[in-house]
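Saturday, quiet lab. Running sequence design on the structure tokens for the scaffold JK sent over.
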């Protein structure tokens, strides 16, 4: 269901560890601002967002559970290939982009992503752990969570919630079936492949989100992938038409490559070392091949690290320091994409649409059977029509032969009767 851009819209942004809620009306963030809710369970986090920002008819979900990639697909693929075959083909094509066995994040990464710790606080706690190992090499090191509680930085409730999330991520089954969304097909030459944006999401993840939203009394108008969604807006605000936009989050970087202001490909680079450092950001920037790079970080601390990382670099690298935060720009872009399907970006279907009759798996075999049966009947009718004169002649000849046999029988009977009469006369 398209989003009406002139109606207050609740945008829920899921980065894997927290939910960010934004209410946008007529293109501007309302006085409610942006809130962040740490996740222990999806149900509790959604309920907290709805409790603070209220229920809205228009809801857009942006989630890291959805993966986006650009594939070269046959022209009009979704209308020419049967539904089951279509899904299998997309699943095979998307497999390199879908992380089937992601690494479970460390507790410190989760706490930093949820805003419970800063990167500097986590670095300090790690230094305390290292010093404890030096002072007491025979004793077991104190976990990060216990160290944070002992230092008075966190309470046990925040640590327990982070541990619950870590456990649920570790138990997640990534072998489930995928559901797909395709960007609108542009004009292309039949018989040639065309670039299409494809969004993929585990069916079980979609069911969890739909159920959580329903329990809070709302439903999503659109589900969008987190990666690359704000790329076009960030590039436009920095007057970049061709290049790449790097969105730096706490544990990963979402990269969107653009040409003529439109996204052409996407990638996600992990930031596995926690806490994130200047050197790690610099290494990430160097790995991305592009002449122009615009970098936007998710919070002020990472923005400062980014500025330090690119200090003294060439003129092709820009750190976005516009007043709008990355979360606000993601929310603005999400509404723009959800309200206008012709933008080229793609959404994950809220529920499975009915498969058109012509795309069902049995349609082609059934059509082939009907054609073969019709051909057989046609051949039989042609043969019958061609042999009809011969058959008629044969039938007439058979009738004549039967009549001749009857006459001969009568003649033979008369001969026998004549012979009997001759014998009686002689007697």
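Result came back. Writing it out in full:
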């Amino acid at each position: 269901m398209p989003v009406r851009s002139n109606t207050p819209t609740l945008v829920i942004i899921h980065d894997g560890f927290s939910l960010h809620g934004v209410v946008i009306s007529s293109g501007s963030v309302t006085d409610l601002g942006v809130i962040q809710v740490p996740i222990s369970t999806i149900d509790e986090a959604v309920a907290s967002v709805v409790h603070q920002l209220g229920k809205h008819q228009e809801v857009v979900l942006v989630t890291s559970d959805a993966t986006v990639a650009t594939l070269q697909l046959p022209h009009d693929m979704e209308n020419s290939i049967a539904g089951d075959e279509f899904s299998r083909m997309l699943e095979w094509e998307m497999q390199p982009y879908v992380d089937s066995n992601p690494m479970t994040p460390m507790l410190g990464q989760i706490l930093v992503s949820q805003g419970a710790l800063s990167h500097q606080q986590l670095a300090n706690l790690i230094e305390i752990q290292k010093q404890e190992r030096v002072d007491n090499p025979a004793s077991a090191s104190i976990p990060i969570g216990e160290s944070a509680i002992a230092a008075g930085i966190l309470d046990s409730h925040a640590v327990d919630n982070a541990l619950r999330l870590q456990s649920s991520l570790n138990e997640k089954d990534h072998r489930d079936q995928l559901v797909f969304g395709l960007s609108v097909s542009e004009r292309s030459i039949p018989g040639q492949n065309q670039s299409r944006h494809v969004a993929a999401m585990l069916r079980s993840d979609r069911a969890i989100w739909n159920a959580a939203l329903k329990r809070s009394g709302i439903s999503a108008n659109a589900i969008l992938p987190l990666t690359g969604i704000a790329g076009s807006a960030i590039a436009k605000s920095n007057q970049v038409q061709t290049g790449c936009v790097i969105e730096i989050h706490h544990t990963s970087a979402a990269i969107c490559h653009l040409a003529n202001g439109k996204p052409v490909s996407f990638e996600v680079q992990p930031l596995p070392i926690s806490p994130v450092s200047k050197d790690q950001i610099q290494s990430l920037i160097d790995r991305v091949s592009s002449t122009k790079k615009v970098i936007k970080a998710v919070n002020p601390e990472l923005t400062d690290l980014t500025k330090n990382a690119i200090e003294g670099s060439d003129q092709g690298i820009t750190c976005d320091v516009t007043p709008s935060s990355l979360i606000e720009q993601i929310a603005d872009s999400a509404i723009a994409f959800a309200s206008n399907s012709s933008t080229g970006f793609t959404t994950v279907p809220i529920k499975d649409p009915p498969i058109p009759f012509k795309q069902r798996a049995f349609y082609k075999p059934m059509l082939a059977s009907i054609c073969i049966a019709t051909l057989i009947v046609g051949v039989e009718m042609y043969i019958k029509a061609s042999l009809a004169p011969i058959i008629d002649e044969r039938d007439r000849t058979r009738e004549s032969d039967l009549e001749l046999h009857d006459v001969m029988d009568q003649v033979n009977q008369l001969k026998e009767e004549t012979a009997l009469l001759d014998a009686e006369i002689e007697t």
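Notes for JK: The chain has four domains: 1-102+174-227+325-356, 112-158, 239-321, 362-427. The mean pLDDT is 83. Ask whether to fix the surface positions before the next round.
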